Amino acid sequence: MPLTSVHRWKILTDHLGLYTIKKLSDTLWEARISSVKAVRYQISSIHDALITLAIETQKTDVKVSHEATTLAEQLKDFNFIVSLVVWYDILFHINIVSKSLQSTDTDLGKCTELLGKCCTFLEEYRNTGFKSAILTAKELAEELEIEPVFKATTRIRYVKRQAGETARDEPIASPEKIIEIEFFNCLLDTTLISVNERFEQLNEYSEYWSFLYNIKQIPEKPDLVKFCGDLQLKLTIDSKSDIDGCILCDELISLKSLLPDQNVATPVFVLNFIKDRNLQELYPNIWIAMRILLIIPVTVASGERSFSKLKLI
Questions:
Q1: What is the torsional sign of CA 256, 260, 266, 267?
Q2: Where does the record place the HAT C-terminal dimerisation domain (predicted)?
Q3: Is residue 34's pLDDT more than 90?
């Protein structure tokens, strides 16, 4: 009698530890890293579970037995193991940034800083990550009791020469080099482009809004006047602006003296302070500017759910 899906799932869970196998999500970074992490840290256990399933179904369900055997063999492909490690390393760092961006106390300043650090990590990983991924993959290969050898490819790859060089392009003979060029480098380049685009967009916003991140540390009045004037221009459409830059400057200086004696006065804190004391009419420009600042989406991208600070206010 063929094994039911419940019995097949029990075989898998009996072999696994902390992490459950999950379907790859098209929307959430956290779900993506969870899917990869389960395989990354339990690859030998998953392999054993597949072999067990193949053995127990070889007489009752040939199709399931064959699929389990095939998957088990694919897990022992060193090319796959290296790609698994690389994907996990990248998704792990991106997920940290993604989760941080969705924190209730995150503002544009923190977002910009986090994305900047993420770009730095990816650039460094682009230069050194492939070698470190191979070292980690060798440890996983040892768990699976296989040789850490890249599979050869039958297709010929060529290295492009610089302009002016007349010799014929040399083919890439090393399977390891092919994986590095066609998988690792392409993946990192694509990821860097995506993260850099977000960083540049947020950095552009941050240039206009950064002086409002902490009212307790607003700049001296000459600089503050310029920041407020620039923000007024940014919020001007058809000669009409949401705020008056000169009045905003005076309001910030006044409100700073009323705030509690603490080092940080975030936009959320300032809005709550004004609302709780019914000071909206006294500080209308701050009230408007802070609300606009907090409804600027901090993460909007395909493959990831949009998140806006609007729900905080």
A1: negative
A2: 258-310
A3: no
